[in-house]
From TrEMBL:
GO cellular component labels: mitochondrion; mitotic spindle pole; spindle microtubule
Gene3D superfamilies: Tetratricopeptide repeat domain (1.25.40.10)
Organism, as annotated: Euphydryas editha
Keyword set includes Repeat: yes
Protein's UniProt name: Regulator of microtubule dynamics protein 1
Keywords: Cytoplasm, Cytoskeleton, Repeat, TPR repeat
C-alpha cells in the first residue's frame, strides 16, 4: 500500500501511512519513512526551514540503522542520499567533510544491489559535483583534505549511462546530465540526442520541469 502510494508521487500521504508504525522498529518501515521524507523535502510547497527539518528527521531515523543493518541495501542507499542533503544544508564545509563518507555508503549500496538506477544516478551526481566544484570551494576543500576526492566527466557519464541501461528513461535529470557530460566532452551529436529526450520528457515533477527547461536552453545554444 505504502509503496504504491509512493510510486504515484504522494509522498506526504505515504509518510502518514508509515509513521504510525515507526515504534515497531522495523527496518523495512523505517527506511521507507526516510524515503518519503527525503522526497517531501524536495517539494517547493515547503519553505527552506521545513525542508531542512524533514531531512534532519530522516537522518535521525536512518542513522540508527546504518550500523545495525549494514547489509541492508536500502539502508545504505538512503543513508548516503540523506547524509548528502543534510551536509549540503549545513554549508559547504560540512558538505566537503562528508564527501568521502557519502561515496563510501553509496559504494556499499551498489555492492549490495548493482542495478538500482536511482543509486547509479546519484553516484554520477557525486562525480559530476566533484568535477564541477568551483575554484574557491576547492580551496576550502584543500584546507580540509590532504587531497580533494578526484573525479571526471567521464566517471560521471559512466554512472549515468549505467543508470539509463538499468532502467531506461527513468529520470529526466539523468537524461539531462548525460547530455551535459557529452557536451563537456565535446560530443555534440550524443549530447543533442539526450538533451532532446530531457527537453521533451513528460513533466510530472519539479525535477522534470527543471530538466525540460535546462535541456531546451542548452539545445538553443547548440543550434
Amino acid at each position: 500500500m505504502a509503496d504504491k502510494t509512493f510510486e504515484t508521487g504522494k509522498y506526504e500521504e505515504c509518510y502518514n501511512l508509515l509513521i504510525k508504525y515507526k515504534m515497531q522498529n522495523d527496518v523495512e518501515i523505517k527506511w521507507r519513512i526516510c524515503r518519503a521524507l527525503y522526497n517531501m523535502a524536495k517539494d517547493p510547497k515547503y519553505n527552506e526551514k521545513i525542508r531542512k527539518e524533514l531531512i534532519s528527521q530522516a537522518y535521525d531515523i536512518i542513522v540508527e540503522d546504518v550500523k545495525t543493518n549494514s547489509h541492508n541495501f536500502a539502508v545504505q542507499k538512503w543513508y548516503a542520499l540523506i547524509l548528502d542533503v543534510k551536509s549540503s544544508n549545513e554549508g559547504i564545509q560540512a558538505k566537503i567533510e562528508q564527501l568521502e563518507n557519502v561515496k563510501k555508503h553509496m559504494d556499499l549500496a551498489v555492492t549490495l544491489n548493482p542495478n538500482d538506477a536511482s543509486l547509479l544516478h546519484m553516484l554520477g551526481e557525486w562525480c559530476f559535483q566533484i568535477t564541477e566544484l568551483p575554484w574557491h570551494q576547492r580551496k576550502t576543500a584543500d584546507a580540509i583534505f590532504a587531497s580533494l576526492p578526484y573525479s571526471t566527466y567521464e566517471d560521471a557519464l559512466e554512472y549515468y549511462l549505467k543508470a539509463e541501461a538499468a532502467q531506461p528513461r527513468f529520470y529526466s535529470i539523468n537524461l539531462l546530465r548525460i547530455g551535459c557530460c557529452y557536451l563537456k566532452l565535446k560530443k555534440e551529436d550524443q549530447a543533442k540526442y539526450y538533451l532532446k529526450l530531457a527537453a521533451s520528457y513528460p513533466a510530472k515533477s519539479d525535477d522534470d520541469h527543471r530538466a525540460n527547461k535546462e535541456a531546451a536552453e542548452l539545445l538553443k545554444k547548440l543550434k
